[in-house]
Specification:
single chain; Rossmann fold; Adenine-specific Methyltransferase, domain 2; seven-stranded mixed β-sheet; 10 helices; 34% helix; binds S-adenosylmethionine
Amino acid sequence: MSIKVENDKVVKPFLKWAGGKTQLLTKLEKRFPGELINGEIENYYEPFLGGGAVFFFIKSKYKSLKNFYLYDINPELFIAYSVIQKNVDNLIESLGIIKEEYLSSKNRKDYFLEIRSKFNSSLDSINFQEYNNTWIERTSQIIFLNKTCFNGLFRVNKKGHFNVPFGAYKNPAIYDKTALINSSQLLDNVKLFLGDFELINDHIKENSFVYFDPPYKALSSSSNFTSYSRDNFDDHAQIRLANLFKQFAKTKSIKLMLSNSDTKDGYFDSLYNFDQIEIKRILAKRMINSVSNKRGEINELVITNYSQNLFD
Ligand SMILES: C[S@@+](CC[C@H](N)C(=O)[O-])C[C@H]1O[C@@H](n2cnc3c(N)ncnc32)[C@H](O)[C@@H]1O
């Protein structure tokens, strides 16, 4: 699904990412702070960037925003965003080669497995700290794997190896050149950080909007969709996040919005039970059972430190 924004720019998240917010954008936007809608807010922070659906939407639409700070703990995501920001032309070239090889290969599954094994075997030699040209090929590989693997997932095992099987799609759209170029333009002048969400402490300023979309707490022990990286987002991390939210919430000009799952035990109602916090429920289509791949409508939480007046 693509996101249409003003002046008809189409920005398709370049990766399919668990927990992507494309389908919820309209509902979330209605609950954005009035100060963002009115053009008063200057700084935007997203400490759990993922597929970036919310960032791309906000950056294209809200022109009063001047500074953008994006964070994710996943190093593969970090290098992909950095490459799209700095070197989209070479990335498109590299993707063109992969696509050509894939389409002309006698056995597409074998080609997929070959790229997957190259991607995994180069993990130890990649320097994730400093931008370098090896990131370009790696980004083209991850985009290719994400588009051709089963269910379009990104999942790694404990060693950090991508382990999703081949997807056998007839005609997978491996990349969309225009959307990549648009994404690159939107990433211009944006600050990207690899690391834990608490890094935001080093950068937070007044007159800001922060959108938090952490890995969701599992609704039950059998529905755990939070394996984006080797680091689990456990209850300890949820508590660290609630403490940070509470600390920022004291500053009136910092507007906070956080999404999470609506666990039946009211876990987040108690965790975010402090002054001036509003917790609302919105309906979302989600995988409700990882085993049967069943989708259904469930409630998700939207937690803010301002009142959620619904904007049209
Ligand atoms: C639900 S996803 C974000 C979805 C995103 N908003 C979208 O629309 O695609 C959560 C992200 O948090 C990242 N993450 C997990 N633990 C983290 C941590 N401690 N600090 C920062 N990011 C983390 C994961 O790598 C994942 O990309």
